[in-house]
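Reading is simple: each integer encodes one residue's backbone shape. The lines below illustrate:
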Amino acid sequence: MLNQISTLPPDSISKKEAREKTEQYTEEIAVMQDMLFAQRQHSVLVVLQGMDTSGKSTTVRDVFKEVNPMGIRIKSFKKPTDEEFGHDFLWRVHKHAPEKGYITVFDRSHYEDVLIQRVHNWIDMDRVHQRYKHINNFEDLLAEENNTLILKFYLHISKENQLEDLKERETDPTKKWKFNPGDYEERKHWDTYMEAYEAAFEHCGKKYPWTIVPADKGWYKRYVVAKTVYEAMKTLHLEYPQ
């Protein structure tokens, strides 16, 4: 499936138009976040997944740059600690779920536990399928018990574009701090990662669907994410309390 979806922007929108609309969307998201915070009836969870160098952190920066920092929280999930390994895989995630009035962005998320662990065979397929069920129940819990709007994005970059970005991290003095030789090792599992992502979309995308974002061009990636967040938040019919 993913190999049939372009990682490049369509011809239907220009870079200039996309940038102008992105600015409008980011400003509107900030206004709605203020109402969200004042109203305290809903929360928003934005999940960002993607291969290394797909631009998750820059997407957070550019899409939510106008939002009041008091009303947004960012959580990046790395390798679990010993304490986290001692609990169920959702324990460390659940405590960072957004409370009413807040936007929370997961830069990587609970889906890592059916991606990297599957790719490296750290858990068997029976356990993977169990986790799909737990993830669906977890997302239902957030949506039904806490009025959480769940938005999930996969930043879809090409293997060629990733290689260019990795090489740039090696040579650009401002990006060397991001370079991790292990990224080249993970890259060797590209096809297996694509299979794992496609399975996650299939098993955990019916109720809270994924947006596949062509991500080779940053300006289009930011446009798609901002537009999707804006349009979804509009459905909450937010307003200031009287």
About this structure: The chain has one domain: 2-234. Residues 15-39 form the longest helix (25 residues). The chain has ten helices and five strands. The radius of gyration is 18 Å.
